[in-house]
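User: Sequence in, structure out. Go.
Assistant: Echoing your sequence, followed by the structure tokens.
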Amino acid sequence: MRHRRISELMTRQVISVRGGTPFKEIARTLSQHQITAVPVVDEGNRVLGVVSEGDLLRKTADRVTAPDDLPAGVGLQTWERAKAEGIRAEELMSAPPVCVRPEWTVAETARLMEAQDVKRLAVVDEEDRLLGIVSRRDLLGIFLRGDDEIRREIVEDVLAGTLHLDPDALAVEVRNGCVELGGRLPFRGMIPAIERMCATVDGVVSVSARFTYDTDDSAAFTPRGERQ
């Protein structure tokens, strides 16, 4: 069973800026290319950080007149005020950058995005050189896989290739990414493993199973996995 790698999903044509790029040029770059963030790279194309629309908008927040004659920028943290005063990419960027490698899977990348609360990640090689950008939208692309393609992977890779079952003895239906499994198995204990493996196939939304079985082996083990 093969999981799609980030190298297959990432955007390879990446717009980037250097550390010395001025504020207004960054703003123009974001506007012209209709993007919300841009990686900052050095002369060796190594990623130093990322400048987003939010980073640029801190300058506006810093200049808003505060109520009751409080100083402008009140409420901003020290690091936010420092970035708001920046005029070049290296002063405005969020660093260190959160990056992934091209061989990462969708699941690994999605977990990192969730943990770091970011919408996109720079994809870099072993020397931190920029290879591409992967966004949440790119990851969602796996759910555009066709039902026939998903079914073929379940039948050939999961059932026959990994579990060594006869796929002709089992029923596999896929509708809009929802997998329905049926048929007869040798042992009841195989059902959870089949469900888990099918659920990890790229593009699967849900898995439901209605198997019958020859032997109920589930009572042969205690909750600790020891024979009774």
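User: And one key feature?
Assistant: The first helix runs from residue 6 to 9.
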